[in-house]
């Protein structure tokens, strides 16, 4: 992807506003911005509780004394007028408030109308498809870039597949398989979003159908993301279990938008497990959780087991890691690439969201608008940022 020029944007009081800053991941994102936002970046914290925002600002001042003067903006996700005012005040709005299907639609609508770039951490396919149907056209008219899934869902998969494709020949059919491994644990907010998505099967199918009716057909090219089947992967020497997550949908939408992925592109996404008993146990656990999520009382019970706003402590996060290995083939060439980093759900997700917002606010990028993926909107610029921030993208083998 070739870098473009910065898009013409109306002058706003802020470059980046972080909404939901006092939540678990929101506070980590705020800490990252306090330590890494460039000089001259005008950013602010937003949320519904000013007292909590003031406490967070005090903590950030210990990282950078200049944060003592950080602006605080009060807004509730359900208050349409406040959300519209918030979106109109900034060039980029980053939100960590989920489940997004409950709390996210108003922010997307406001950003599309105001011509404000938007980034979030959603892993909810229903939400992404609904926002495409409802707001893509207006965002294109207003020049807003709506970029969902800017955390562990789905930056490693999306930019990892993009990075892999860049190592393969142009103009030929390509296949990429992604194999994800991690030792991380989840927070209450992440669990709430996952259980909400699992419990909304009919709504998810309906939203996907509506999107297919609205989305232009891809002419002369093909981009596919089949689920695949459980198997032993000789490339990674692990058991590969298909992951029915948002990731492959994001990857194939990048492939549909960018000709660099070739005339016929296929992506499959797997969890990578070393030992067969663990693989079988994990499959059973996921199946049981999905079944329980269909029953409202059981779903509420599971959510109440882990309260939103809480998550693993710093010591546990410091021990966490992730690796996504990609096997790409096409045109007689085969490559093995890898994206890796630390704690995926929190430390690295906060880093990914913050760098995505900073990238949209400050970098020279291709001219895009509407609902776009990280690979389409930011591509090489965001990979460069993430590498400098400690997330590795590398070619492990090529032949």
Question: How do the strands and helices of this protein lay out in sequence?
Answer:
Elements (H helix, E strand, L loop, with lengths): L13 E6 L4 H13 L6 E5 L2 H14 L8 E3 L5 H9 L1 E6 L4 H4 L1 H10 L2 E4 L4 H18 L2 E3 L7 H11 L8 E9 L5 H11 L2 H14 L7 E3 L6 E3 L4 E5 L4 H11 L6 E10 L2 H18 L2 H10 L8 H5 L3 E9 L2 E9 L5 H16 L7 E2 L2 H4 L1 H10 L3 E7 L1
Parallel strand pairs: 1-2, 1-4, 2-3, 4-5, 5-6, 6-14, 7-11, 8-11
Antiparallel strand pairs: 7-12, 9-10, 10-11, 12-13, 13-15
Helix pairs in contact: 1-2, 1-14, 3-5, 5-6, 6-9, 7-10, 8-12, 14-16
**Radius of gyration, whole Å:** 20 Å
Mean pLDDT: 88
Number of helices: 16
Helix proportion range? 40-55%
Number of strands: 15
β content, as a range? 15-25%
Largest beta sheet, briefly? 8 strands, mixed
Give the overall shape, derived from the CA principal axes.
globular
What is the first-to-last residue Cα distance? Answer: 24 Å
Outline the low-pLDDT stretches.
1-7, 287-293
Alpha-beta classification: alpha/beta
Summarize the structure in words.
The protein is of the alpha/beta class and about 400 residues long. The chain contains 16 helices and 15 strands. The protein has helices at about 25-35, 50-65, 80-90, 100-105, 105-115, 125-140, 155-165, 190-200, 200-215, 245-255, 275-295, 295-305, 315-320, 345-360, 375, 380-390, and strands at about 15-20, 45, 70-75, 90-95, 115-120, 145, 175-180, 220-225, 230-235, 240, 265-275, 320-330, 335-340, 370, 390-399. The strands form 2 sheets. Strands 7, 8, 9, 10, 11, 12, 13 and 15 form an 8-stranded mixed beta sheet that branches. Helix 1 links the parallel strand 1 (about 15-20) and strand 2. Helix 14 packs across helix 16 (about 380-390). It starts with 13 loop residues before the first strand and ends with a strand.
């Amino acid at each position: 992807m070739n870098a473009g020029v910065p898009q013409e944007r109306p002058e706003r009081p802020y470059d980046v506003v972080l909404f939901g800053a006092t939540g678990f991941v929101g506070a980590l994102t705020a800490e990252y911005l306090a330590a890494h936002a460039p000089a001259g970046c005008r950013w602010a914290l937003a949320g519904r509780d000013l007292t909590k925002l003031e406490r967070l600002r005090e903590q950030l001042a210990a990282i950078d004394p200049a944060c003592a003067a950080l602006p605080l903006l009060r807004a509730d996700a359900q208050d349409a007028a406040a959300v519209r005012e918030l979106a109109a005040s900034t060039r980029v709005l980053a939100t960590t408030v989920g489940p997004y299907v409950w709390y996210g639609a108003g922010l997307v609508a406001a950003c599309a109308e105001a011509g404000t770039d938007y980034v979030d951490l959603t892993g909810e396919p229903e939400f992404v498809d609904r926002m495409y149907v409802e707001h893509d056209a207006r965002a294109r008219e207003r020049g807003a870039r709506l970029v969902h899934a800017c955390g562990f869902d789905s930056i490693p998969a999306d930019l990892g597949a993009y990075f892999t494709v860049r190592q393969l020949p142009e103009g030929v059919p390509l296949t990429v398989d992604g194999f994800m491994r991690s030792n991380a644990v989840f927070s209450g907010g992440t669990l709430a979003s996952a259980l909400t998505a699992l419990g909304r099967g009919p709504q998810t199918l309906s939203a996907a159908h509506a999107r297919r009716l609205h989305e232009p057909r891809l002419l002369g090219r093909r981009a596919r993301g089949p689920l695949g089947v459980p198997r032993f992967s000789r490339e990674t020497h692990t058991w590969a279990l298909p992951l029915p997550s948002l990731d492959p949908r994001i990857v194939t939408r990048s492939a549909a938008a960018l000709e660099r992925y070739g005339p016929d592109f296929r992506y499959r996404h797997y969890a990578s497990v070393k030992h067969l008993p663990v693989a079988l146990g994990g499959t059973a656990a996921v199946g049981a959780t999905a079944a329980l999520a269909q029953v409202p009382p059981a779903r509420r019970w599971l959510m109440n087991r882990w309260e939103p706003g809480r998550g693993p402590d710093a010591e546990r996060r410091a021990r966490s890691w992730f690796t996504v290995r990609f096997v790409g083939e096409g045109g007689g060439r085969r490559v093995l690439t890898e994206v890796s980093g630390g704690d995926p759900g929190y430390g690295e997700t906060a880093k990914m969201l913050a760098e995505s917002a900073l990238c949209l606010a400050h970098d020279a990028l291709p001219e895009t608008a509407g609902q776009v993926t990280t690979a389409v909107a930011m591509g090489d610029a965001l990979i460069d940022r993430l590498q400098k921030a400690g997330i590795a993208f590398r070619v492990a083998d090529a032949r």
